């Protein structure tokens, strides 16, 4: 059974899968792409709420035991000492996670927002004959309607962005470390050093020249091959955007974490 659990969260297309692929090189760690636990967590909370007539028999202490048991049973076969569970939803669950796992921390991967939109649009165009789960497998639309869809409150990007702000400005911000995609891809050693220091874990030498991760089956089922592809070598990808200039500019000032005046709780950023 794992001894400690931490969480990877943040924005889409911002390096969470790459970070997990690097962390799992450490034999003491278990990490992977986004999984089902956050959804199961929310479903259990709902079933134990007042909408269920039998909730009168359930107290908070019991709810907590059930939810802790969810993690323990899901990772029961994991031999690693430290588990990292990944989901964009964890940024909305910091108060609960702080109670269930007092020593846990959340690593939130972030990226300049227009480049997230650009990255998702590239995936859609690359898979022109496969409608994506990102848009409920609906074909058609324009780059503008697709950007509006992902940036909306329930969209892939908009939900994660709002969740990140909730955690960043909330009471449990001291549990949060922001890892910028730009740092992770250009200076992976510095980014990983910050992660280990934040978690209080002994240093480990990672191989950024040989990174291995395969989620091809999941991506194919989602109608978005390449969604979780991790290159074998960590490196920055300098390129021109494929977004129209006005659309790119629309998101250009959304990286709130880059403004020190908007960090009243002193969240660590690397």
Automatic annotation (TrEMBL):
Transmembrane segments: none annotated. InterPro entries: P-loop_NTPase. Pfam families: Sulfotransfer_3. Keywords: Transferase. It is an enzyme of class 2 (transferase). GO terms for molecular function: transferase activity. Its EC number is 2.8.2.-. The keyword rRNA processing does not apply. This is Sulfotransferase. The lineage of its organism: Bacteria, Pseudomonadati, Pseudomonadota, Gammaproteobacteria, Lysobacterales.
